[in-house]
Specification:
single chain; mainly beta; Elongation Factor Tu (Ef-tu), domain 3; 4-stranded antiparallel sheet; about 35% strand
């Protein structure tokens, strides 16, 4: 967790979509295009640089609303909307069939991505209320660089993580809320433990896992 800050997506229209849990990993991809000119009698052809390709950013996010019992689709529907044509963006024309989804930026503490568009969105609902309301979803996002903005974040998004207060080896039957009650005196203060350890699904912890217990923020 970057200095206690939550990650979020910024839309082209300056709206903010918060991530309920900070991601455990970020995948950044870069590629260049090189062509080989083969010539008779040469074993190894020379390569010629043809230009750079758009960068990519991969995110794995967890959305969980079990504590409120509200449908998690309240959050995932905002991501679906980002892949739809936005009629309020400049240049939109229904007659000319000129429209596009807006670009987004990913922010997490000192980490600020380039402008990018969502090329792939996969939502996997993994937990439901007794009435069928989805309460937990795992989301995979693939973002592609939108323009030539050269804003490649070199900062480590976890550079502001607080020093651990203690380490704890998870025992059978222990949960994050029990650990929060033990170390913080508040079972509802389990999210900092999840964020500090990159836990995307707090219900899939295994006994024997070593967890860092961060200092409680004032």
């Amino acid at each position: 967790m970057a200095g206690g800050q939550k990650a979020y997506l910024e839309t082209e229209r300056k709206e903010r979509i918060p991530c309920l849990f900070n991601p455990a990993e970020l995948q950044i991809g870069l590629a260049n295009s090189w062509d080989a000119d083969t010539k008779p009698g040469q074993q190894t052809p020379s390569l010629q640089y043809r230009g750079g390709e758009s960068g990519s950013l991969g995110l794995e996010l967890l959305f969980d609303t079990t504590s409120t019992a509200k449908a998690v689709t309240e959050h995932t529907n905002k991501l679906i909307k980002l892949m739809q044509v936005d009629t309020k963006l400049p240049g939109y024309s229904e007659q000319k069939q000129n429209g596009r989804p807006g670009w987004v930026k990913f922010h997490w503490g000192n980490f600020h991505s380039f402008r990018c568009v969502i090329t792939s969105l996969n939502i996997n609902f993994t937990y439901f209320a007794s009435n069928g309301t989805p309460l937990r979803a795992k989301v995979s996002l693939t973002l592609k660089q939108y323009d030539q903005e050269n804003n490649w974040p070199a900062q480590n998004p976890t550079s502001g993580t607080p020093l651990p207060q203690a380490s704890h080896v998870l025992q059978p039957g222990e949960t994050l809320d029990r650990l929060a009650a033990r170390y913080y005196g508040d079972p509802f203060a389990w999210r900092p433990i999840a964020a500090a350890n990159g836990i995307r699904d707090p219900f899939q912890l295994r006994p024997g896992t070593v967890l860092d217990i961060p200092q409680q923020e004032t």
